[in-house]
Amino acid sequence: MSNLIDIQSQIEKLQKQANEIKAKEFNSTVQDILAKMQAFGITVKDLQNAKPAKGSKAIRGKKPAAVAKTEKTSKKAGVAVAAKYRGPNGETWSGRGLTPKWLSSLIAQGQSKESFAINAQ
Fold first, then answer.
1. Which end of the chain, N or C, is more open, meaning fewer C-beta atoms within 10 Å of its C-beta?
2. Does one domain contain both 69 and 112?
3. Whole-model pTM over 0.70
Protein backbone atom coordinates (compact mmCIF):
# COMPACT_ATOMS: atom_id res chain seq x y z
CA MET A 1 0.00 0.00 0.00
CA SER A 2 1.34 3.42 -0.92
CA ASN A 3 1.97 6.02 1.67
CA LEU A 4 0.86 9.63 1.53
CA ILE A 5 4.15 10.92 0.09
CA ASP A 6 4.01 8.41 -2.79
CA ILE A 7 0.42 9.36 -3.59
CA GLN A 8 1.19 13.08 -3.50
CA SER A 9 4.14 12.48 -5.82
CA GLN A 10 1.89 10.60 -8.24
CA ILE A 11 -0.67 13.41 -8.12
CA GLU A 12 2.04 15.94 -8.90
CA LYS A 13 3.30 13.90 -11.86
CA LEU A 14 -0.21 13.43 -13.23
CA GLN A 15 -0.96 17.13 -12.84
CA LYS A 16 2.18 17.98 -14.82
CA GLN A 17 1.14 15.50 -17.53
CA ALA A 18 -2.33 17.02 -17.68
CA ASN A 19 -0.88 20.53 -18.03
CA GLU A 20 1.45 19.37 -20.82
CA ILE A 21 -1.42 17.72 -22.71
CA LYS A 22 -3.56 20.81 -22.29
CA ALA A 23 -0.75 23.05 -23.57
CA LYS A 24 -0.19 20.80 -26.61
CA GLU A 25 -3.88 20.63 -27.50
CA PHE A 26 -4.65 24.30 -26.78
CA ASN A 27 -3.38 25.76 -30.06
CA SER A 28 -5.01 23.10 -32.21
CA THR A 29 -8.31 23.58 -30.36
CA VAL A 30 -8.17 27.34 -30.88
CA GLN A 31 -7.42 26.82 -34.58
CA ASP A 32 -10.36 24.40 -34.84
CA ILE A 33 -12.67 26.93 -33.21
CA LEU A 34 -11.44 29.72 -35.49
CA ALA A 35 -11.99 27.55 -38.57
CA LYS A 36 -15.56 26.79 -37.51
CA MET A 37 -16.19 30.47 -36.75
CA GLN A 38 -15.01 31.39 -40.27
CA ALA A 39 -17.03 28.59 -41.89
CA PHE A 40 -20.24 29.71 -40.20
CA GLY A 41 -19.50 33.45 -40.19
CA ILE A 42 -19.51 33.63 -36.39
CA THR A 43 -18.01 36.73 -34.75
CA VAL A 44 -16.85 37.33 -31.19
CA LYS A 45 -19.89 39.59 -30.77
CA ASP A 46 -22.12 36.65 -31.74
CA LEU A 47 -20.53 34.57 -29.00
CA GLN A 48 -20.94 37.31 -26.42
CA ASN A 49 -24.63 37.74 -27.27
CA ALA A 50 -25.40 34.04 -27.59
CA LYS A 51 -27.75 32.46 -25.11
CA PRO A 52 -26.40 29.24 -23.62
CA ALA A 53 -28.08 25.99 -24.59
CA LYS A 54 -30.56 24.49 -22.16
CA GLY A 55 -28.96 22.08 -19.75
CA SER A 56 -25.46 23.46 -20.28
CA LYS A 57 -23.35 22.24 -17.38
CA ALA A 58 -21.15 25.34 -17.39
CA ILE A 59 -24.00 27.69 -16.50
CA ARG A 60 -26.66 25.40 -15.06
CA GLY A 61 -28.28 27.00 -12.03
CA LYS A 62 -26.39 30.27 -12.37
CA LYS A 63 -28.14 33.55 -13.01
CA PRO A 64 -26.80 37.02 -13.61
CA ALA A 65 -26.47 38.93 -10.32
CA ALA A 66 -29.19 41.43 -11.21
CA VAL A 67 -31.71 38.68 -11.95
CA ALA A 68 -30.73 36.59 -8.96
CA LYS A 69 -31.30 39.51 -6.57
CA THR A 70 -34.73 40.48 -7.85
CA GLU A 71 -36.18 37.10 -8.76
CA LYS A 72 -37.34 34.91 -5.90
CA THR A 73 -39.07 31.72 -6.93
CA SER A 74 -40.32 28.72 -5.08
CA LYS A 75 -38.57 25.61 -6.42
CA LYS A 76 -41.44 23.36 -5.48
CA ALA A 77 -44.31 25.21 -7.11
CA GLY A 78 -42.40 27.39 -9.60
CA VAL A 79 -44.29 30.43 -8.38
CA ALA A 80 -42.62 33.76 -7.67
CA VAL A 81 -42.49 34.64 -3.99
CA ALA A 82 -42.80 38.30 -3.13
CA ALA A 83 -40.21 39.83 -0.85
CA LYS A 84 -41.53 40.55 2.65
CA TYR A 85 -38.48 42.33 4.07
CA ARG A 86 -36.21 45.00 2.60
CA GLY A 87 -32.87 46.04 4.08
CA PRO A 88 -31.36 49.52 4.24
CA ASN A 89 -29.20 48.80 1.16
CA GLY A 90 -32.06 47.37 -0.91
CA GLU A 91 -31.54 43.71 0.05
CA THR A 92 -34.72 41.66 0.07
CA TRP A 93 -35.87 38.49 1.77
CA SER A 94 -39.07 36.54 1.21
CA GLY A 95 -39.28 35.40 4.82
CA ARG A 96 -38.61 31.80 3.82
CA GLY A 97 -35.57 29.78 4.75
CA LEU A 98 -32.72 30.94 6.93
CA THR A 99 -32.60 34.57 8.00
CA PRO A 100 -30.09 36.35 5.77
CA LYS A 101 -26.90 37.73 7.28
CA TRP A 102 -27.85 41.35 6.66
CA LEU A 103 -31.04 40.93 8.69
CA SER A 104 -29.42 38.80 11.39
CA SER A 105 -26.78 41.46 12.00
CA LEU A 106 -29.41 44.21 12.24
CA ILE A 107 -31.45 42.14 14.70
CA ALA A 108 -28.28 41.55 16.75
CA GLN A 109 -27.85 45.34 16.87
CA GLY A 110 -31.24 45.63 18.55
CA GLN A 111 -33.52 46.39 15.61
CA SER A 112 -36.68 44.42 15.06
CA LYS A 113 -37.37 42.26 12.03
CA GLU A 114 -40.79 43.86 11.64
CA SER A 115 -39.22 47.29 11.11
CA PHE A 116 -37.89 45.97 7.77
CA ALA A 117 -41.23 44.53 6.62
CA ILE A 118 -42.10 45.88 3.18
CA ASN A 119 -45.82 46.32 3.87
CA ALA A 120 -45.03 48.29 7.04
CA GLN A 121 -43.05 50.92 5.09
1. N
2. yes
3. no
